[in-house]
Amino acid sequence: MSRLSELAAIVGERHAVAGEELRARPQDFWNNMPTVALGLVKPGSVAEVSAVLAYCDRHAQPVIVEGGRTNLVHATRGTPETLLMSMERLNTIAPPDADGMTVEAEAGVILETLQNKVQQAGLRFGLDLGGRGSAMVGGLLSTNAGGFQAMRYGVARDQVLGLECVLANGTVLSHLVPYTKDNTGYDLRNLFIGAEGTLGVITKAVLRLHPLPRTVNTALLAFDSFVGVTAALRSMRENLQGTLSSFEIMWREFYDFNVEALCPASPPLPIGSPFYVLCEAEGFSEEADAERFEAVMASLLEEGYAADIVVAQSSRQRGELWRIREEFEPEVKFFQTMIDFDISLPISAMEQFARDAEALLARDIPENLGLHIIGHLGDGNLHVTTGLTSPERKPEVQRLIYGLIAQYRGSISAEHGIGLAKKNYLGHSRSAGEIAAMRAIKAALDPNGILNPGKIF
Predict the structure, then answer these.
(1) 109 and 134 together in one domain
(2) Of these four, 81, 122, 215, 378, which has the most CB atoms within 10 Å of its CB?
(3) 32-48: pLDDT as tens digits
């Protein structure tokens, strides 16, 4: 009996897929290369996950866990010897607890499904990102995803109260507590959040919820200086009474490009300003929130921080503004060989970093196709993207930009993880001692090295 057949006996024949069949499937959302693997299994319970991992540990069988397959760092890329394990069948959401403001969700629950479920109960899940229609809870937690509202609600780690996880040898660790205060020894939960499936397999979580805002006010602002941008952020934090949920910056080159690609005849604000910000505030008093938001926007113009502002007057206009920030298809096509960086920096360093990056590329890679910079300014996260007509010099671009990030003592990965794409540069953000400690934890929890081998380091 083959290894895949023995695993099929655990999960059921129809929930096991041979490697030959997988080759017709793209590797992930961002990569059209065929999926390469020994096979794929789809367990339907934590007991089946445990049994699969125990079998794989006994046979030194490498395992890669799949969620929505929208990761950006090749974290689920395998080899002909790798077993893929999809969490898609673990997709149950318990009824939300409106009093405790929590919900228990399995790893295969899609983010948008979770958002809609808790919204029906008058609650909000504090994580949102562009891949909401495919990203799964397990993947979000395994990569410690960030997104558009991290400034207000925090990253994925901040949404988790309790966690259920299966170790490489099949041991189930279930600590599904629905409360915040729990000082009972080591916080094992946080070992697995952000570990990209290298330490254990997340199967279920108790997630923190928030009251569902009843109002949303959105504006697009143009700025003549970065000083104006940071002054506007301070003003909004002080004067919007805790309702500011998003503060998304776009450098001119990205904004102008996307406006020309998406709405050249009717741009919401004219192109050509050095910086643009899409901001959003969500609150609980319709009349008061709108008045406060418009007053703050007016003060930004009066004080000379912002050069121009448009406030969305309808949900349709709000969607059009967000489309400029969220739509990447024109950029992907334009850059041909796309090279993107997901970084964190002190806000005070961002403007000079951008200038240095542009100068480095102009000097050493003059054939680059431009530099697009956007990001979640309020939490210090920038997305920096360039492109080439062919991939030969991509490693040179990466060395230049990652080296610059190291000079600024920034993070080479703000919210996308390390995977395969960034592991050669982990030392730019983490010391040798820290990496050695990570390796020791990996060796202790996965001594046979079966979980997502070769990722992170």
Answers:
(1) yes
(2) 378
(3) 789 999 999 999 999 99
